[in-house]
Specification:
Elements: E1 3-9, H1 15-23, E2 41-48, E3 51-58, H2 73-84, E4 91-96, H3 103-116, E5 123-127, H4 138-149, E6 156-159, H5 172-183, H6 206-216, H7 222-236, E7 239-244, H8 251-259, E8 277-284, E9 287-294, H9 304-324, E10 329-335, H10 341-354, E11 361-366, H11 376-387, E12 394-397, H12 409-426, H13 438-449, H14 461-470, H15 476-488
Parallel strand pairs: 1-3, 1-4, 4-5, 5-6, 7-9, 7-10, 10-11, 11-12
Antiparallel strand pairs: 2-3, 8-9
Helix pairs in contact: 2-7, 3-6, 6-7, 9-13, 9-14, 13-15, 14-15
């Protein structure tokens, strides 16, 4: 599988020269930028030592001060590139030939980091045409203060020249430059994971905030941003998955199983508060996923105190799901064994109360490492689940054990492939997710969750209002509207 690289920057920044420097031969034309009329990018394949590389040379970006719709063309071409990609991008090389960090370089950084990739692909800075510098790397030292000031999170940098000397012998500066670029491969995203355990903006809803990103961070006018967002909105959706189940069933271990490495810390078994949640971003089957790991019920009912404590958690989760674009899939994580009341109530809490029976559910059955045939559990128990009206569009019977893993190496790998197949079946291109306006969603959920309070003793509205205002930082006016909705619902 090749290392996929996008090379971006201002017009004349030396992007094609950087590609040729990596290839150690002329594979990209340096006469002009990519044809602005017919091409979104130029694709070049070559080997660097033993690594296969696929580099995409892009059209140069114009100065932020150019007031013309032609300035939008590179942005549109970049969108065409992103939409045409069949493989995941591992690295972005952002090139600049300016002596100082330019505003256009900052805009291009935010376009790819914030708008296209949401912090999931590392970006490295390549300062070109440094042949006249006594020390080529001095460019970085001169500009580091501004880089930090403008919060540009580069994963690495290289200050280079692509010029070869005409004299005999080894061209030390050329070789030094090439080695510096090759060293940046070490910052690239491996094919099975993203570079960050969590996104740069954990609750970043690019669909809603795209225009703001483009105007405030990428230097476009409101009109330009509107034209661009209408074109690329379908490209930016990431599937959102809510993982739920009792404490101790192995939810975080399932996340690690999907990721292929320990992205989520496995708890010691201590119980969190119901509806506590944590967001993770990872890559599976060449697709980015956003998974919300939640804390479910550990008993069939809750007391008033538990209900009130859950309000803040419910608001945080619902607000996060709303801003992230809704829910595409629920994964019900349950321990292999007999079905209990707590599992049934967890299923209702998320499938019926949170998602109003409008989101498909997949089931992952865990703790089956002692079974000779893990799938046998479903053959023996699948019908019982259906009889309890626990419906699903797919299942996986697995072990996600995190202790003595060497004893279950084969079963862990089998389990990972089983879960990945489940995701391939259940998570396609993100379609129409379920979501509601946050306050209406919260009031509807809290009303239904009231059915779980022991003895039917629903908390007083005054206590709920206090929680909304004091712990959720909701205005009194908004809290009153939520309470009115609660009282109005049947």
């Amino acid at each position: 599988m090749p290392l996929n690289i996008i090379v971006v920057g201002e017009t004349g920044a030396g992007k094609s020269s950087v590609i040729n420097l990596l290839a150690d031969r002329d594979v990209a034309s340096v006469s002009s930028d990519v044809d602005t009329c017919t091409k979104a990018f130029a694709e070049h394949k070559f080997k660097v030592n033993s690594t296969e590389v696929c580099a995409y040379d892009t059209m140069g970006f114009s100065s932020a001060y150019v007031d013309s719709l032609s300035r939008l063309v590179p942005y549109e071409k970049a969108c065409n590139l992103i939409s045409s990609l069949k493989s995941k991008i591992n690295l972005v090389l952002l090139c600049t030939n300016k002596d100082k960090l330019s505003i256009t370089t900052q805009h291009v950084y935010h376009l790819f980091n914030d708008f296209f990739f949401d912090g999931t692909v590392p970006i490295v800075l390549v300062a070109t045409y440094r042949e006249k510098e006594t020390s080529m790397d001095s460019w970085w030292g001169r500009n580091l203060k501004d880089i930090n000031k403008f919060r540009l999170r580069f994963a690495g940098h290289a200050c280079v020249t692509a010029q070869r000397s005409r004299g005999p012998g080894v061209d030390l500066r050329y070789q030094q430059s090439r080695d510096a670029l090759i060293q940046l491969f070490g910052t690239a995203t491996p094919h099975h994971r993203v570079v960050l355990n969590e996104p740069v903006y954990p609750l970043f809803n690019r669909l809603a905030d795209a225009t703001e990103i483009l105007t405030e961070k990428c230097g476009l006018s409101s009109r330009e941003a509107g034209l661009l967002t209408r074109k690329v909105n379908p490209l930016l959706r990431i599937a959102n998955i809510v993982l739920f189940g009792e404490t101790g069933v192995g939810k975080t271990s399932v996340i690690n199983l999907i990721a292929g490495y320990n992205i989520a810390p496995v708890s010691s078994g201590a119980r969190g508060c119901t509806l506590d949640s944590k967001e993770y971003r990872l890559t599976a089957n060449e697709s980015h996923l956003r998974i919300f790991d939640t804390v479910g019920l550990n008993s069939p009912t809750v007391n008033q105190s538990d209900y009130l404590h859950a309000i803040k958690k419910a608001y945080k989760l619902i607000d996060a799901l709303n801003r992230a674009g809704g829910v595409d899939l629920l994964i019900f994580c349950m321990r292999g064994g007999r079905l209990n009341d707590a599992q049934l109530k967890n299923y209702r809490l998320f499938q019926e109360y949170l998602c109003e029976k409008k989101v498909p559910v997949a089931i992952v059955v865990t703790h089956l490492e002692q079974e000779d045939n893990m799938e046998q559990w479903w053959e023996n128990n699948g019908e019982d689940l259906r009889s309890f009206k626990i419906d699903s569009i797919g299942h996986a019977c697995v072990t996600a054990i995190n202790k003595n893993t060497h004893l279950f190496k084969d079963k862990l790998e089998e389990s990972r492939q089983t879960v990945l197949r489940l995701l391939r079946t259940c998570v396609h291109e993100p379609g129409t997710p379920f979501f509601m306006e946050t306050d209406k969603w919260l009031s509807a959920f809290l009303k239904k969750m009231g059915h779980l309070v022991r003895g039917g003793n629903f908390p007083k509205m005054r206590a709920i209002r206090e929680k909304l205002v004091e712990e959720c930082s909701i205005s009194k006016e908004r809290a009153n509207v939520i309470i009115e909705e609660l009282q109005r619902q049947e």
